[in-house]
Amino acid sequence: MSAVSTASQIDPVERRREQRGWYWYDFANSAFVTTTATVLAGPYITSVAKTAACGTSEGDCDVPLTVLGLSVSPGALYFYAITITTILSAFILPVVGAFADRSGTKKRLLAGFAWAGSFFAALLFFVSGGNWLLGVLAMMGASLCLGASLVVYDAILIEIATPDERDGVSSRGWALGYVGGALLLVINLALLTVMKDDQGLAARICMLTAAAWWAGFTFVPFVRLRNRPPVNVEKLDGGALGRSFGQLWHTLQHARAYPMTLLFLVAYLFFNDGVQTVIYASSVYGSEELGFETDVLFIAILTVQIVAIFGALLLGRLAGRFGAKRVVLGSLVAWMFVIAGGYLVPENAMVPFILLAASIGLVLGGTQALSRSLFSQLIPRGREAEYFSLYQAMERGTSWLGTLAFGLAFTIFGSYRIAIVLLVVFFVVGGILLSRVDVKRGIREAGNEMPAVV
């Protein structure tokens, strides 16, 4: 067992240098999250599926696709694919976390998963005609690799930031991520404007640029971060993979020792399900339900990105004064009003749609950044990646209820609007559970330093 080391033992100058390098992975992967996962992949794969089923991507298509012997509506295919991906994540990511905690090579793992994900993301460029299967597999591979890289990325936060620094460091990382997402969106919006006569090719090029952006800017954290030996890892028999499964099982057996950590994870499961469904469904909802073209979707998502920069920094400052838990609870109340507004937006009403996007941006970054830093306070030292794998499993591996609801709502009612109402339930339940989390008790149970403001 290695001795426990803390971020406060790192020279402050070196610590800030690593923190600045760490921020850049948010900058790198946000290009894929915004341009591909949020804006283009859903509508594009849906149009390809319609072409395969009906011979054209225009208008409604009531001819089902046959997927593994099942009949699937082209309009629901993307949501079912995301549902399968997130369920797979729930099983894969905890093993990734257990391996990362035992490896001592977190920055290499971070970069490896990022570059593998960007490879899958680049394959989307070759999706055309009715080749929906390649699009689905590429998107699933990219999403799984993104989740695995974020398990490692989030765990590194604990190594390079003291408890009092984490709210600010996490918020600045999210803010820089939104800067990166916004910059590439501006570039790609210009490309879509120039290539109006071939929007399909333009979308494929945009997704390729997102993959290249993700891969290229990952070199910054790869160069600036340091690998550190694992700490507080109990010795288990077997090879590296076997020890990873063994460590995971050992942690799950003893998780009852950290009831506040587990309660936070359950709360996060619910309210983050709502957040992730908004992210995945926003472009399809805007295009299929509200009737907006791709350029309007880009403007809306760009609005989200720009406002989210300031929203993440603002909520980070508020957390330094009132505590992360109180600020996250306030943001969940705001989310309920945002979702209600989304349900009421009329078809083809651009101004209300853009105002809705700005409202999402105001609460999106802060909710995600402060949830990450709050959870970091509740993790027992030496199991950062393993616990953050559970966190990412909640973020990417259990957000399937919302996407499943959208897929089923479209199949049954032919409308995504009804599913919007269901999302409010996730925020209500998540908020109630989060209100019952005793953060001070959780920090003490995990054996961590108590920050000045809780």
UniProtKB/TrEMBL annotation:
List the transmembrane segments.
Answer: 77-97, 109-126, 132-153, 174-195, 201-223, 262-284, 296-315, 327-345, 351-370, 390-410, 416-434
Offer one Pfam family short name for this entry.
ATG22
Give the Gene3D superfamilies listed for this entry: MFS general substrate transporter like domains
Q: Which PANTHER family match?
A: AUTOPHAGY-RELATED PROTEIN 22
Q: Does the keyword tRNA-binding apply?
A: no
Q: Under what name is this protein listed?
A: MFS transporter
Question: Which UniProt keywords are present, listed alphabetically?
Answer: Membrane, Transmembrane, Transmembrane helix, Transport
Instruction: Supply the source organism for this entry.
Output: Longivirga aurantiaca
Task: Tell me if Transcription is a UniProt keyword of this record.
Answer: no
Principal localisation = membrane
Query: Which InterPro entries does its entry note?
Result: Atg22-like, ATG22/LtaA_families, MFS_dom, MFS_trans_sf
**What are the top taxonomic ranks of the organism?**
Bacteria, Bacillati, Actinomycetota, Actinomycetes, Sporichthyales
- Lipid bilayer topology: Multi-pass membrane protein
Q: Which residues form the Major facilitator superfamily (MFS) profile domain?
A: 260-454
